[in-house]
Amino acid sequence: MKQINCLIISDSHGRVDRVREALSRQRGVDAVFFLGDGIGDIAAVAPAFPDIYFLCVRGNCDYIDAFLDRQVMKTDSITLGDKRIFLTHGDMYGVKYGPEGLYRLAESVNADIVLYGHTHIPSEEYREGVYYFNPGSLYGAAEGATCGVMTITDGGVLFSLMHID
User: Fold this and answer.
1) Cα–Cα distance measured from residue 112 to residue 12, given in angstroms and rounded to the nearest whole number
2) Burial class (CB in 10 A: 0-12, 13-18, 19+), 107
3) I need a labelling partner for 99 at 20 to 30 A (CA). Which of 15, 110, 116, 129 fits?
4) CATH homologous superfamily for 4-163?
5) pLDDT at residue 66 tops 70
6) How far apart are CA 156 and CA 165, in angstroms?
7) What is the pLDDT of residue 143?
8) Handedness of CA 42, 43, 48, 50 (dihedral sign)
């Protein structure tokens, strides 16, 4: 399998400049996963990056339900390499109160990776064969403005955090 590089963005809340900066820094990505709360920000920037695949989910502050002529759901999934990836904003699973809802979700959909946002706090966990990753917020929080990079290879999955300020 060839190496697959993905940019993971969440909670931009109007910071189109930071979305543009994140994409400019990661020109070699194969896909961008947007985890909600700022779909309009992604929609404003995506046309400048026609060679990148975008997959978005809606957050609790998103009132747009279409992106690049596709309907945007509250959850979505994709398989890359041999990894089943599930995307959610996280609000429907109570992520601000703990990860238990995500654990149940991962089991019910047989996910290898769960990507989520909503808390504005970066987080990475590996539990019972499943990766859980929150890239934080491009809007910013105590950790500053952050997004994530996920690399999938035959050897496994690597997550890293990127600061945008």
Assistant:
1) 26
2) exposed
3) 15
4) Metallo-dependent phosphatases (3.60.21.10)
5) no
6) 30
7) 77
8) positive
Please give the backbone phi and psi of residue 101, each rounded to the nearest 5 degrees, phi first: -60, -35
Query: What is the average pLDDT across 70-84?
Result: 90
Query: In terms of DSSP bridges, do strands 70-71 and 123-127 run parallel, antiparallel, or are they unpaired?
Result: unpaired
pLDDT band for 67, please (50, 70, 90 cuts): low
pLDDT at 32 over 70: yes
| Cβ atoms of 6 and 153 closer than 8 Å | no
Q: Alpha-carbon distance 102 to 23, whole Å?
A: 27
Q: Which residue, among 143, 154, 138, has the nearest Cα to 7 in the 3D structure?
A: 138
Q: What residue type is 22 in one-letter code?
A: A
Q: What single-letter amino acid sits at 84?
A: R
* Residue 144 or 65, more confident: 144
Query: Are 51 and 27 contacting, i.e. CB atoms less than 8 angstroms apart?
Result: no
Which residue matches tokens 């060839």?
2
Is the Cβ–Cβ distance between 99 and 69 less than 8 Å?
no
**Residues 45/53, Cβ–Cβ less than 8 Å:** no
Beta bridge partners of 84: 79
